[in-house]
């Protein structure tokens, strides 16, 4: 950590500040410039409250040199983390392909989709039972019943299941029904109480990036989960909010590289939510894999035109099978398998 | 609602679409252009699922003409809503000034601040007991004990209290301790389960705008609360996330005008969180009132340099007293009282 | 300037870097931490190329402590700059109110507006002769003839005139016609050749903030003009581009405070372009003055419904007279005159 | 075009509006709803001024159904445009790979890079002679001399050359020196006078996307060039400005798909400027090609650590050769050649 002092910081203040920092066992190197004095803090600076120091009148800026996350950082865990999900791995050489409908609607629908994506080579089944909707008047998902249908369909198709949780009081239900990956949606990325709650379990968690979350904030949310002892975190890039309105969000594939650089955690990409346009899904899935993602998450619906939510971004099982063919060709080019 | 069809939409599709819409009791006016056909839907279009129609292959776009919120809309409730909070009103001629520290730290601290701001003319006391922090390693607030200290301080100073809730399981505690306004923070603006939970109470709710929430999404979150039967919603503009990094966020004062135009709900402005800089607070408080806000929410700490969080944006009681003097001069110029 | 080296930077590299920096007369304080080495550069660091150093493989980051602008910085020019424009001052106690139509259309129109705003108390006349339009098929302004009409109208009404330049080859015309302030539009804020060209004149320049320009980039563009010897730069905040679509742009009033803090240059606010909505103009003009702006720039058209461009954001002369009344009441409250 | 009227629009106004529209030869279909009246305009609506109508007091909104660009639109030109650049084609099956240094520095440097990239399979040479720099104190390029060196190097290596123009008064020089593609930089995307000037030539123009330009605005800038008669426009996605600060900009690969969908013009991707990080260039080049781009534009410098600008994002000739190998493997997978 580096503290830049203002030009006219009185000596008493500097002395007070330095002794309070040293009292915490942190050493200080002082550089006196013509107009600014710079304090370089050396040692375990995690005990220093950056915000508090930045608040002092005579402090110009406080600059962090070390990352604020530890468990999520590659610095302290150089090897890629590979997470086992019901026998399927995410983060290793083999790509993860998570597919399924936005919402679970009927047992026939979810089982039909599950069989179709399994046949095409998907490795996991997704489907929403608890749906975060902007409007209170929109369909909110089949709730507990939907969760049941999803888990049944996953078992029948021999596919691990991924589904979103919206409040901590449902965790027991998710554990009892044996959901394989608990998803935290973009709107809950900084619902810290929910992060703490899933951090107490040992279930893999798929953590979507918030609509306007920086990569650092996203990794800090992963850190919340990991701080509770659950190291099984999978990140999911799903587009960020920008001024562009043609696509629902702007897919940020450089974030895949940044996450891989900063962290050892696996990362998958969701082109369906990122764009909101089904005709963009295949090309951006390929781009995601080419950029280095550990997998993709795709909305597939047996009858997208009749889907109860997000039909515009869902592809059909046939389109999904073609997408899988493309990914299968692409994978070896980038050192992956499918 | 307006549906624009693509150029080569087959007649069977158009017939199918139109009859399914008419079956819901909605009338259709058809305009056939050279390249596009436009369907104008007339009647109660809230029964039509916009997303689903937008998903059809032959539909070019679906344009909403009516707003998606009803209870929050000024169309159906032309008069300003005035909310009574423990005898103090928000939304009427008198300005609301909510002040207090970021975090409750000790009984002495919160009582000291409460007395000081009361003396300067504040109308409500704020203070955080449950703190949403980006890092799991930062101070998370004094929790239940902090809530107690805050409510005690409010009672002693005869000031209603405002404090943030972070999960639905704390609602009973908030009601028992007689919190006057339950705050929903920016990061929880689309925590729909929490919105539904406070919607079931009749306590006033202060709903902060999300970091990257559009005005429409914000009003939809208000609608979630109101749909549960709780009409006591106060909106709080606290800056949005943009590319500018000099201020923590970008305060959007045109949002005050937009909200007043679209909705009957009261709106206050929080310049402390919007900017993260204490020396900007007074000038932007004046700007907020000049723009038409119903009040401001200000961080005040008796010793900002030692504050356990957000010291950099807190002002001292003396600075607050000067700010109140400015607002008192300004209020009559814009048809307000303080 | 602070250079943070990576953990495993070889000693030869560190020696090479340090000697190349010292060769430029800059001193270095070294802090060796457990994992990072920090070099604090002391002296005239403007001779050091930050980008180049940041490019070295073993450099983690380069942090600038001093601002990159000099002539625009308040550090080296603590007093407010007051600019004289044909006898009217901008930047002093008296507020500047620049008003007029988006486009000059006819001599009658521009003269009519000029007389009306003069009567209401405006201090300068604006009007576009060269119009930057998103579409090549939209009205591009009356060009040279429009410039003539504007200057004539200004002379008749005894108002200095402000108008936009779009290419350097028109500078002679602007000087010959005796335009009082040359405006650089938002889309040309980083048209560096145009900045250099107006920097060679001594005419006051009104520099609009770019649609997505940071405050630092904006001040760097002012620095471009000032580096040419023209110190008469007036900044104009006109809204930035964000994800919000209800207003055309998002007016950033905290930028007014930031500019006043960082620079000695005067700043005015343009609520008409910022919002695109005429009914927001009066309230946001008041907010701008309350925030500390040195003036406002307002679109006024005698017949907004028939305006050849931007009618939706222009106010009528009557509305303008009422706005002036409000500002006249507000000015003394914030230590200003009008 | 669709015009939505407000609820209480008086009949005289509606009649006036409709007759003024019909006078321009445009037909109107009227839909009267319970609260809103909708006018559907049919015919050549390009003669209608949308902004002006939106300005009327009784108009709620005006919605464009047709795109505002014609010559750039795929609707009127369904086949992909293939542009011939000195014998090399952009927009066809063969991928374009444009490579070279940020700045031309010496004849040896630019010739060395040209030979190296040619050997590795690049199809064009880039290099800056006129450099847009944020600071007036940064290296501004070798100007006319640099242009000469670049064109010489291109001829010797048998590579067409691409270089940026910053003001219209240099066009004759660019034509005389036989530059093969004139580049318009991101900061000049809406420098309309420059767009008009290059529109009068018949030289291919590489038009970079502005830092915060929507896809529609970008295509409108292409339209400016094409409206002058120059149909040889190549678009270049180079990242947009968002709140994320880890990368210099956010590369928007969904824009590649959007442009291909909306327009017939070729599009290339510049991952060097988009990210500012050399280690991201190869992976994002692959992602760009996988997404469907017609080529990439890559910064290559023989000695990036000593580059006079943007060293941090330049790759070495060796890294470039490896990148070309990857692209050569990838191309056939996505139906391309290299």
From TrEMBL, chains A, B, C, D:
It comes from the Bacteria. Residues 1-67 form the DAHP synthase ferredoxin-like domain. The keyword Ribosomal protein does not apply. Keywords: Transferase. Residues 87-329 form the DAHP synthetase I/KDSA domain. InterPro entries: Aldolase_TIM (IPR013785), Class-I_DAHP_synthase (IPR052899), DAHP1/KDSA (IPR006218), DAHP_snth_FXD (IPR041071), DAHP_syn_2 (IPR006268). The keyword Phosphoprotein does not apply. One of its GO terms (biological process) is aromatic amino acid family biosynthetic process. It holds the Pfam family DAHP_synth_1. This is 3-deoxy-7-phosphoheptulonate synthase. It comes from Megasphaera stantonii. The gene is aroF.
